């Protein structure tokens, strides 16, 4: 096949694919252009996850009408003049590809007015074909409207995900840019509903409240500034109590630019070592400042990645700043243990409505086990297939693992995983028979959720209701919790937000209903590090013995490690 020159339309579509991956890419490029134009207010409107409409309006310096055709051409930019300018780049955009790429795969319209002009100019480009400039009345700034994204590239459009997922990507982009520029007012409207607003006060704490919500932002603390040579680290990170089920709420900035860096994210997570349980991730914004000649931003078409002159120095500075901040804000003395005691009635939260003291919510008992005498008499009996034998509790290790003796050796039981398995089987048994038992709240508990959590609460409202959760919209990003499953004895907010995080990220289980059950059981169970009394450990083991599948929690983690008598004898040289 002979070599031929591709036609211009094909070239533009291929080039667009490098810059515009999904609707969030469009939003990122347009908002960064607005920031480079000196905007102090940016409003983003999205319909149908960005497929049908993306509109970005700013109050920046604007573009003269006669320059609009040049603005949508490839490699036309006002950000630099020669290659050497890349070494001291201070703007977000510089390639001159964004508008050309977007207009090649959409019905694109740009209207702009500089401050010195009496009116603005408007240019429409339909899938790469430019029209005429028209005069238009408008305020100073720029309005870019993108309709029918990827309509002329059906293969790319088919690979877009559900509207809610694409909207979540867009929200993350806006959140990152709002945290990078707290001096700019940012607003995101999704399907005519405002889901994100920051005041543009210039204070990071106000931007954090707009992105994460006031309650969560109160648990995000400023980083202790670290200056390691030319590397300066600042920002704010969340305390372990506000950790999430994924990394979507953690942002890394380099010289004000939001990037993705596995090395820096790993450094941040390592700073939380021993402070977060497995499967939980920190939140916050970590900003790194260093001389422009020490970082190369021209290594990725979407400017998503950068290359450092010395990545290890930057990672070490980030780790030091985060770790020192956490140690400064965490209590030096461990908090009082909150114990699990199914033998006694748990302390009821003031919000619970209990009409009759005899009906105080307690974990539903599993089928009764043999009495103490019969347990001793049957110590040598073989357990049913898959069940645990009758065990004698000996003690606790590191307030996390229970030591027990069985007829065929020693057993180590993970108290959190074991309790999770117990609660999961209780929920599934109730679901299959009489329905999950609820406890109603005397006053609704109003929570402010992230967009991903809010979307999950609406999308899976029926599954949540079947598992005992009653969650209703309460305006904006808030919901009202009116009832919870009976197994949730404390920390309602933490349990529900964790369940919604798991739902939003896919979670475990073959169905959303199963995911809700697994997540509710996991986050309601006692935690590792809680001291248990001997009666509490005995009751926990008794209930675990009655489970149908006691050897793993709902996430597949083992609950029990068994060392047979033969293994013990081999370890001590008796065999």
Describe the structure.
The protein is α+β, with helices and mostly antiparallel strands and 575 residues long. The protein folds into three domains: 8-201, Heat Shock Protein 90 (2-Layer Sandwich); 219-329, 2-Layer Sandwich (Ribosomal Protein S5, domain 2), CATH 3.30.230.10; 387-563, MutL, C-terminal domain, regulatory subdomain (Ribosomal Protein S8, Chain: A, domain 1). It is elongated and about 90 Å long. The protein has 18 helices and 24 strands. Strands 1, 2, 3, 4, 5, 6, 7, 8 and 9 form a nine-stranded mixed β-sheet that branches. A hairpin with a 2-residue loop joins strand 13 (250-254) and strand 14 (257-259). The longest helix is centred in the middle third of the chain and has 19 residues, at 311-329.
Give a short overview.
It contains 18 helices and 24 strands. With 575 residues, it is of the alpha+beta class.
Features:
575 residues; alpha+beta; Heat Shock Protein 90; Ribosomal Protein S5, domain 2; Ribosomal Protein S8, Chain: A, domain 1; 3 domains; nine-stranded mixed β-sheet; six-stranded mixed β-sheet; 18 helices; 24 strands; 32% helix; elongated
Let me know the number of strands. Answer: 24
Helix content: 25-40%
Briefly, what CATH class of the largest domain?
Alpha Beta
CATH names the topology of the largest domain as Heat Shock Protein 90
Number of domain units: 3
The N- to C-terminal Cα distance equals 74 Å
Anisotropy-based shape? elongated
**Structural class of the secondary structure composition?**
alpha+beta
Beta strand % = 15-25%
Average predicted confidence as pLDDT: 82
How would a textbook summarize the main sheet? 9 strands, mixed
| Cα gyration radius (Å) | 29 Å
State the low-pLDDT regions, or none: 333-382
CATH superfamily of the largest domain: Histidine kinase-like ATPase, C-terminal domain
Note the total helix count: 18
CATH hierarchy: architecture of the largest domain? 2-Layer Sandwich
